[in-house]
Design a protein that fits this description.
Number of strands: 13
CATH architecture of the largest domain: 3-Layer(aba) Sandwich
Number of domains: 2
Strand order of the largest sheet: 3-2-1-4-5-6-7
CATH superfamily of the largest domain: Glycogen Phosphorylase B
Helix content: 40-55%
Shape: globular
Radius of gyration: 22 Å
Number of helices: 16
Structural class: alpha/beta
Low-confidence stretches: 1-6, 175-181
Amino acid sequence: MSHVSSHSPPGQSPLRTVQVLGGSAVSGAHVRSLASGLVARGVRVTVCAPTEIDGAYDFTGVGAHHVHVPRSSDPASVATLRSACADADLVHAHGLHAGFRATLALGRRRTPLVVTWHTRSYAEGARAHLLRLLERRVAKAAAVVLGASAELVDRARSRGARDARLAAVALPAPRRADSRDDTDRPRSKTRAELGATDRPLLMAVGTLDRHRGYETLLDAAREWRGLDPAPLLVVAGEGPLRSVLQQRIEDEELPVRLVGRRDDISELIAAADLALLPGGPEARSVLAQEALHARVPLVAAAVGSVPDLVGDGAELVPYGDAEALATTVVRLLGDPGLREALRERGARQAATWPTEDETVAQVLSVYDELTRLRPLG
């Protein structure tokens, strides 16, 4: 515990933090990485999240204490969160809805609140007005808002944040075996399970909603189904568009499988010939980061902060352009040399991203700034 002294001066107890999160993959992976780094530096970490999220990310496995708090903002959920935050020196919420629950739980307490905005939320009509109110409430309640992209930092400022900063958000690099044989065995097993032993496998991941370009993806699948063998597109995720997409797949006999929510996303992406990102509101797409880390060629829509994230490490196509997407996929599948060049560029780009250590160090410097005047323990 040699690091403890830097965050616990003599006579002062260790810094006690509560991490609050909802259910997204990006915040789950980030909080596990953050909890691991904070615990290693002598910080006490309590993670408030639904039990199934702890099951997927094993926060207790890295030394954090887990408290089951359902996703909803109902009074019982907020009361559980309030008691978990009772003796915290600082509360850090991940995502807009987690930020709102933390705001309700803290009430008039003076405990500093940090909120990380990982993704941009979308809504229309009356819901857009409610979303704006929610963003304003959370932005104003937070001592610091950390935005995973410049766009989110600007958005937080426009909603009244006193202090909004760009935050490094590292995704833990997949832990893979060094030997090629070891990585090939699970890869072939995954491909067999998905039904892609003797055909190319394309992989997409994300909530099935209309901001993520899945309709465009199915339009593109119609174009490449004439290849021999026809590539199989596998989509992992759940959401309101599921039945609509499934109906189209059946009606048009598209080579596409919807496999629902999965907890083995890293393995699925690593088994793919290409990863596809047709759109989406994430500031730092988990799929993009996983694909480049795993040296899987990525074709992505040039939307939001994706171009900044991937640089020249992915093939970018216009958002909503099914023809451009299909043409790029067919070109890459037919050219192994092009795929290899893209793998190399992707790996170089991934090496420029912030490391987990740098992410933890930045967050900890924010915590120190907000808790400098803590009473002695």
